[in-house]
Amino acid sequence: NLPQHVRLVEVGPRDGLQNEKQPISVADKVRLVDDLTAAGLGYVEVGSFVSPKWVPQMAGSAEVFAQIQRKPGVTYAALTPNLKGFEAALESRVEEVAVFAAASEAFSQKNINCSIAESLERFVPVMEAARQHGVRVRGYVSCVLGCPYEGEVKPEQVAHVARELFAMGCYEVSLGDTIGVGTAGATRRMFEVVGRDVPRDRLAGHFHDTYGQALANIYASLLEGIAVFDSSVAGLGGCPYAKGATGNVASEDVLYLLDGLGIETGIDLDRLIAAGQRICQVLGRANGSRVARARNPD
Ligand code: HMG
Ligand code: MG
């Protein structure tokens, strides 16, 4: 029994662009966000309020938020690793934020410079402030199917962090295969274990496509009843603290899969492809979506 509706969380402007070395203008970022919502995406992660020393590309997030055309019904979100980030997000009138933790200690240190336990403590005041201001908080867990520094990650480690995030008030917890090493069987086992602690309708899948397994893992997740997936237009991206990691699964490819299964998303594939083609031209790179390449042969 597959879900009838799936919600796609577009992370291209954030996860997709955060790793880009070349400067990208605020205008190009704004255009990308507006193109994505015009294609029917109902949720866009626009940027991050993180240390500009750690992720320079996200330094302009406040300007991007100031210039996008906010469509009613669309959620525009941002990453906030601590209270300082949350306060900046509030100033930018962000309606929803995300805190991010990891299932592996080494990745937590490399990405946010603290242990898993410290990160969870750091999120408590963010949750508190968010509650006061009526801002919803999404939680991320990275390295759910493997860590670039520690290798294997057990589903129980993922369940522990996901449970904590859910218990502190995250309305949804997105489980990230940061380095794209997962396979369909491991994905199903992971959701099976985590699903004992967090209801499945509160879980999302976040797959990077490094090993070309992302679509298979999404199908495996659908079979486990997961109905929210993070994806990145044109398959942009990679995490700056996970060497060699590629972009997220391409939104166009996920949409093609879902359309084929008769699962509703409300997104227009042609317009989504056009949005991806445009940002790829800006970046001067090949489109990472197989569907977009098939539709636009050179
Ligand atoms: P730290 O150095 O330990 O922080 O970094 P600190 O509190 O000691 O502060 C150091 C400096 O950073 C200070 O400035 C602070 O003001 C500043 P200074 O006095 O040196 O000039 N600072 C900030 N500036 C702006 N915004 C803030 C902020 N906080 C402190 N919010 C910190 C700790 C968490 C800040 C840092 O490690 C950081 O920003 N990390 C972000 C890393 C990141 O964004 N990674 C990518 C996103 S996660 C991801 O991609 C995975 C995901 O896609 C899922 C998956 O695929 O697995 C979500
Ligand atoms: Mg990611």
From TrEMBL:
GO molecular function list: hydroxymethylglutaryl-CoA lyase activity; metal ion binding
Family matches, as Gene3D superfamilies: Aldolase class I
Keywords, ordered alphabetically: Lyase, Metal-binding
UniProt KW Transmembrane keyword: no
Family matches, as CDD domains: DRE_TIM_HMGL
Enzyme Commission number: 4.1.3.4
Family annotation (SUPFAM superfamilies): Aldolase
Listed GO biological process terms: ketone body biosynthetic process; L-leucine catabolic process
Annotated protein name in UniProt: hydroxymethylglutaryl-CoA lyase
The encoding gene: liuE
